[in-house]
Write a structure and sequence with these properties.
With 204 residues, this protein is mainly α. The protein contains ten helices and no strands. The longest helix has 28 residues.
């Protein structure tokens, strides 16, 4: 099997996995995503360049691409072989631009997006993440704590290790004894839940 065959899914296979993923089969989406990861990592490395890598971690881009693709899955139509890979690369490109613009020269733990979950977690964890008073930060921490209490234990651990502690994806996967795809899924699901609970609340 050559390199291209390892990346490009036959169109009918992509359509089948896509149908299952849209029906809620997370393993089907993981199967689609996993086949593109090597190409996605290579693309992100090239697109970021050395200077950007000082501010943005590649795993953060892959994680955000996974989460964004999962939420935008209904908008994707497999029109040709390799379309899913191209779609993911376009999402990754947008994630890189967003992360670079948001990071600037700031600390790696700085707020990484405008999503309520990201802003709340960064504000709660990092005293340099925003112009909040001690009381405001305490209030945000309490809201985050209450929201995270509704998650299962695996989701909580994944968020704490990957987002709050900013550990590399591979390290989190090793600690949790799970695959990197499983960790991505846990984090995406947990942040989605957290964001829904915090949406509409002022955490900036």
């Amino acid at each position: 099997m050559d390199g291209r065959a390892a990346i490009v899914e036959p169109l009918h296979r992509t359509a089948d996995l896509l149908t299952r993923a849209r029906a809620g089969d997370e393993h089907a989406f993981d199967a689609l995503f996993a086949r593109v990861v090597p190409r996605l990592q290579w693309f992100v490395d090239l697109r970021m360049g050395a200077r950007v890598r000082e501010r943005v971690d590649r795993d953060d881009v892959i994680q955000d691409t996974y989460a964004a693709a999962l939420t935008q899955l209904e908008s994707f139509t497999p029109t040709r072989e390799g379309a899913f890979a191209s779609w993911l690369l376009a999402i990754a490109e947008n994630q890189i631009r967003r992360l670079v613009a948001h990071h600037g020269a700031a600390h790696r733990r700085a707020v990484r997006s405008d999503r309520p979950a990201d802003r709340a977690l960064a504000l709660a964890a990092d005293p340099m993440s925003g112009p909040a008073t001690r009381a405001e930060r305490r209030d945000v921490r309490e809201r985050v704590r209450a929201a995270m209490a509704t998650m299962d234990a695996a989701e909580q651990e994944a968020v704490l290790l990957r987002v709050v502690e900013a550990r590399p994806l591979a390290e989190v996967a090793e600690i949790m004894d799970r695959s990197e795809s499983a960790v991505r899924r846990l984090v995406a699901r947990a942040l989605g839940s957290l964001g829904r609970q915090l949406s509409g609340e002022d955490v900036a």
